[in-house]
Specification:
By secondary structure, the protein is α+β, with helices and mostly antiparallel strands. The protein has four helices and seven strands; from the N terminus they run αααββββββαβ. The strands form two sheets. It has a five-stranded antiparallel sheet with strand order 3-6-5-4-7. A two-stranded antiparallel sheet has the order 1-2.
Length: about 230
Protein backbone atom coordinates (compact mmCIF):
# COMPACT_ATOMS: atom_id res chain seq x y z
CA UNK A 1 0.00 0.00 0.00
CA UNK A 2 1.41 3.33 -1.01
CA UNK A 3 0.87 6.47 0.86
CA UNK A 4 -0.01 9.55 -1.00
CA UNK A 5 2.00 12.60 -0.15
CA UNK A 6 1.62 16.03 -1.57
CA UNK A 7 3.50 16.20 -4.83
CA UNK A 8 3.83 12.51 -5.13
CA UNK A 9 1.65 12.35 -8.24
CA UNK A 10 3.76 14.81 -10.17
CA UNK A 11 1.89 18.02 -9.34
CA UNK A 12 3.81 21.01 -8.09
CA UNK A 13 2.75 22.38 -4.71
CA UNK A 14 1.04 25.72 -4.79
CA UNK A 15 3.43 28.54 -3.85
CA UNK A 16 2.90 30.01 -0.39
CA UNK A 17 3.08 33.74 -0.23
CA UNK A 18 4.50 35.10 3.04
CA UNK A 19 5.34 38.61 4.04
CA UNK A 20 8.27 39.25 6.33
CA UNK A 21 7.70 41.97 8.88
CA UNK A 22 10.52 43.67 10.79
CA UNK A 23 10.66 42.82 14.53
CA UNK A 24 9.83 46.35 15.64
CA UNK A 25 6.69 46.41 13.50
CA UNK A 26 5.64 43.00 14.72
CA UNK A 27 5.83 44.20 18.34
CA UNK A 28 3.88 47.29 17.39
CA UNK A 29 1.13 45.38 15.62
CA UNK A 30 0.71 42.88 18.43
CA UNK A 31 0.59 45.64 21.07
CA UNK A 32 3.28 44.14 23.32
CA UNK A 33 5.56 47.12 23.00
CA UNK A 34 4.64 50.55 21.79
CA UNK A 35 7.17 53.20 20.95
CA UNK A 36 7.51 55.98 23.46
CA UNK A 37 6.21 59.35 22.61
CA UNK A 38 8.54 62.21 21.92
CA UNK A 39 8.12 63.94 25.31
CA UNK A 40 8.70 60.70 27.22
CA UNK A 41 11.72 59.93 25.12
CA UNK A 42 13.21 63.29 25.94
CA UNK A 43 12.69 62.70 29.68
CA UNK A 44 14.19 59.23 29.63
CA UNK A 45 17.34 60.35 27.88
CA UNK A 46 19.53 62.33 30.30
CA UNK A 47 20.97 65.49 28.97
CA UNK A 48 24.60 66.43 29.47
CA UNK A 49 23.56 69.54 31.44
CA UNK A 50 21.96 67.50 34.28
CA UNK A 51 24.96 65.22 34.85
CA UNK A 52 26.30 67.44 37.68
CA UNK A 53 29.28 69.75 38.03
CA UNK A 54 32.64 68.52 36.83
CA UNK A 55 35.25 67.11 39.19
CA UNK A 56 37.32 70.30 39.08
CA UNK A 57 34.42 72.36 40.41
CA UNK A 58 33.82 69.91 43.29
CA UNK A 59 37.50 69.94 44.25
CA UNK A 60 37.57 73.74 44.21
CA UNK A 61 34.47 73.89 46.40
CA UNK A 62 35.98 71.54 48.97
CA UNK A 63 39.24 73.49 48.99
CA UNK A 64 37.31 76.72 49.59
CA UNK A 65 35.39 75.18 52.51
CA UNK A 66 38.64 73.92 54.07
CA UNK A 67 40.28 77.33 53.67
CA UNK A 68 37.30 79.04 55.32
CA UNK A 69 37.46 76.59 58.24
CA UNK A 70 41.18 77.20 58.72
CA UNK A 71 40.59 80.94 58.62
CA UNK A 72 37.98 80.76 61.39
CA UNK A 73 40.39 78.71 63.53
CA UNK A 74 43.20 81.25 63.34
CA UNK A 75 42.05 82.64 66.72
CA UNK A 76 41.98 80.16 69.63
CA UNK A 77 39.23 81.01 72.09
CA UNK A 78 39.38 79.65 75.63
CA UNK A 79 36.25 77.80 76.80
CA UNK A 80 36.51 79.37 80.28
CA UNK A 81 37.47 82.70 81.82
CA UNK A 82 40.51 82.76 84.07
CA UNK A 83 44.21 83.45 84.29
CA UNK A 84 47.03 81.98 82.22
CA UNK A 85 49.50 79.65 83.92
CA UNK A 86 52.30 77.37 82.75
CA UNK A 87 52.89 79.28 79.54
CA UNK A 88 54.98 77.13 77.17
CA UNK A 89 55.14 79.42 74.10
CA UNK A 90 56.21 82.95 73.30
CA UNK A 91 54.68 85.53 70.92
CA UNK A 92 55.80 84.91 67.33
CA UNK A 93 56.65 81.26 67.89
CA UNK A 94 55.42 78.66 65.39
CA UNK A 95 53.17 76.00 66.87
CA UNK A 96 51.87 72.72 65.53
CA UNK A 97 48.53 71.00 65.89
CA UNK A 98 48.05 69.38 69.28
CA UNK A 99 50.88 71.30 70.96
CA UNK A 100 50.30 72.40 74.55
CA UNK A 101 50.44 76.20 74.80
CA UNK A 102 49.41 77.11 78.35
CA UNK A 103 46.95 76.36 81.11
CA UNK A 104 43.87 78.46 81.88
CA UNK A 105 42.86 78.49 85.56
CA UNK A 106 39.16 79.39 85.94
CA UNK A 107 38.95 81.34 89.19
CA UNK A 108 35.14 81.20 89.24
CA UNK A 109 35.05 77.41 88.94
CA UNK A 110 36.76 76.38 92.15
CA UNK A 111 35.85 73.45 94.34
CA UNK A 112 37.35 71.92 97.46
CA UNK A 113 38.29 68.28 97.86
CA UNK A 114 38.18 67.35 101.54
CA UNK A 115 39.76 64.02 102.49
CA UNK A 116 37.50 62.88 105.33
CA UNK A 117 38.43 59.97 107.58
CA UNK A 118 36.30 56.88 107.23
CA UNK A 119 35.40 57.03 110.92
CA UNK A 120 33.74 60.45 110.37
CA UNK A 121 32.14 59.78 107.01
CA UNK A 122 28.91 58.13 108.19
CA UNK A 123 26.91 61.36 108.53
CA UNK A 124 28.19 63.13 105.40
CA UNK A 125 25.49 63.46 102.73
CA UNK A 126 25.23 65.44 99.49
CA UNK A 127 23.58 68.78 100.20
CA UNK A 128 25.07 69.28 103.68
CA UNK A 129 26.07 72.88 104.46
CA UNK A 130 29.79 73.53 104.76
CA UNK A 131 31.84 76.39 106.20
CA UNK A 132 35.42 76.81 105.07
CA UNK A 133 38.43 78.87 106.10
CA UNK A 134 41.50 79.34 103.95
CA UNK A 135 45.02 79.72 105.27
CA UNK A 136 45.46 82.52 102.72
CA UNK A 137 43.04 84.87 104.52
CA UNK A 138 42.92 83.26 107.95
CA UNK A 139 39.86 82.85 110.16
CA UNK A 140 38.64 86.36 109.34
CA UNK A 141 37.18 85.23 106.00
CA UNK A 142 34.53 82.50 105.97
CA UNK A 143 33.49 80.69 102.82
CA UNK A 144 30.15 78.93 102.47
CA UNK A 145 29.45 75.89 100.36
CA UNK A 146 27.71 72.55 100.21
CA UNK A 147 28.62 68.91 99.66
CA UNK A 148 28.12 67.88 96.06
CA UNK A 149 29.28 64.27 96.12
CA UNK A 150 31.49 61.62 97.67
CA UNK A 151 34.34 59.82 95.97
CA UNK A 152 33.99 56.30 94.66
CA UNK A 153 36.78 54.96 96.88
CA UNK A 154 39.59 55.87 99.23
CA UNK A 155 42.75 57.50 98.04
CA UNK A 156 44.77 54.32 98.53
CA UNK A 157 42.64 52.39 96.04
CA UNK A 158 43.40 54.79 93.18
CA UNK A 159 47.08 55.18 94.05
CA UNK A 160 49.80 54.23 91.58
CA UNK A 161 50.84 51.33 93.85
CA UNK A 162 47.76 50.28 95.83
CA UNK A 163 48.42 48.29 99.00
CA UNK A 164 48.13 44.50 98.82
CA UNK A 165 46.35 43.25 101.93
CA UNK A 166 46.33 39.57 100.93
CA UNK A 167 50.01 39.08 101.76
CA UNK A 168 49.33 38.65 105.48
CA UNK A 169 51.52 41.56 106.57
CA UNK A 170 48.60 43.93 106.97
CA UNK A 171 48.66 46.99 109.19
CA UNK A 172 45.44 48.89 109.73
CA UNK A 173 45.44 52.55 108.75
CA UNK A 174 42.50 54.90 108.80
CA UNK A 175 41.53 55.52 105.21
CA UNK A 176 40.32 58.81 103.81
CA UNK A 177 37.61 59.32 101.18
CA UNK A 178 37.55 62.48 98.99
CA UNK A 179 34.44 64.65 99.37
CA UNK A 180 33.69 67.26 96.72
CA UNK A 181 32.50 70.63 98.06
CA UNK A 182 31.17 73.46 95.91
CA UNK A 183 31.98 77.01 97.05
CA UNK A 184 29.62 79.97 96.79
CA UNK A 185 30.59 81.99 93.65
CA UNK A 186 29.94 85.23 95.53
CA UNK A 187 32.62 84.38 98.06
CA UNK A 188 35.08 83.53 95.31
CA UNK A 189 34.44 86.87 93.60
CA UNK A 190 35.14 88.82 96.77
CA UNK A 191 38.01 86.66 98.02
CA UNK A 192 39.56 84.78 95.08
CA UNK A 193 41.48 81.59 95.68
CA UNK A 194 44.12 79.61 93.83
CA UNK A 195 44.29 75.88 93.21
CA UNK A 196 46.34 73.91 95.72
CA UNK A 197 45.71 76.07 98.80
CA UNK A 198 44.98 74.59 102.23
CA UNK A 199 41.53 75.00 103.75
CA UNK A 200 39.77 73.95 106.94
CA UNK A 201 36.35 72.38 106.45
CA UNK A 202 33.40 71.99 108.82
CA UNK A 203 30.44 69.94 107.57
CA UNK A 204 27.01 70.19 109.20
CA UNK A 205 25.95 66.57 109.63
CA UNK A 206 22.46 67.28 110.95
CA UNK A 207 21.48 70.20 108.72
CA UNK A 208 20.75 72.61 107.33
CA UNK A 209 20.54 71.04 103.88
CA UNK A 210 21.13 73.13 100.80
CA UNK A 211 18.97 72.20 97.84
CA UNK A 212 21.08 74.11 95.40
CA UNK A 213 22.08 72.29 92.21
CA UNK A 214 25.74 72.03 91.44
CA UNK A 215 27.24 73.99 88.55
CA UNK A 216 27.10 72.51 85.08
CA UNK A 217 30.88 72.20 84.94
CA UNK A 218 31.03 70.42 88.27
CA UNK A 219 31.40 66.67 88.50
CA UNK A 220 28.37 65.59 90.51
CA UNK A 221 27.84 62.19 92.04
CA UNK A 222 25.10 60.70 94.23
CA UNK A 223 22.82 63.67 93.65
CA UNK A 224 19.75 61.46 93.86
CA UNK A 225 20.61 60.38 97.40
CA UNK A 226 20.32 63.89 98.82
CA UNK A 227 18.28 63.55 102.05
CA UNK A 228 15.28 65.66 102.89
CA UNK A 229 15.48 68.15 105.79
Amino acid sequence: MRSRRPGACGRRPAPVRARIWPPSRLLTRCGACKPKSAPNRRIAQPSPRSSGPPAAVCAATQALALARLNWTRRIIRAPVTGIVAQQAVQPGQWVRAGQRLFTVVPLQQMWVTANIKETRLAGVRPGAAVTLHSDLYGNGVTYHGWVVGLGGGSGAVFAVLPPENASGNWIKFTQRVPVRIAVDPGNLTRYPLRPGLTMTVRIALHGPWIRRPGPDWFLRSAAASRPSP
